[in-house]
Design a protein that fits this description.
Number of helices: 5
Strand content: 15-25%
CATH architecture of the domain at 46-140: Alpha-Beta Complex
Order of helices and strands: HHEEEHHH
Keywords: Membrane, Transmembrane, Transmembrane helix
Transmembrane segments: 15-37
CATH topology of the domain at 46-140: Sufe protein. Chain: A
Protein name: FMN-binding domain-containing protein
Organism: Claveliimonas monacensis
Largest sheet: 3 strands, antiparallel
Number of strands: 3
Strand order of the largest sheet: 1-2-3
Helix content: 40-55%
Amino acid sequence: MSSRTKIVVLHMKEIIYTVIFAILAILLILLLVFMFFPNDKEGNSPAAQYKAGVYTSSLTLNNTDLEVEVSVDDAGISSIRFTNMDETAAAMLPLAQPAMEDIAAQICETQSLDNLSFSSDSAYTSQVIVDAIKDALAKAEK
């Protein structure tokens, strides 16, 4: 039996390329894992975003001060309404209450302030109301 000695010649350039490609492959795998597996620590549910309670914000429409009340419970935003809308304010601002009801229904359904649709008749009023709701929800954030 004769044994032949085998000599393997490795060039340093080949070793460096192999190490670089192995590192890139590991980074790619880690990136894919972090992208496609959900992170439970973020708390994307509305209940995790807000502390339960009733929060208010004020707004002024046509020299009339109104209070917007946002109720938040464990399930998310439960109701949004005007607290001091009396008959005089309702007569002076006929578009405010219907706009509030429409916005409140959309927000309570979607639990989000994004992609709200406004009536063209009350676009300015609706935007002012949404801004007041954002202020109230900012007070409710954890």
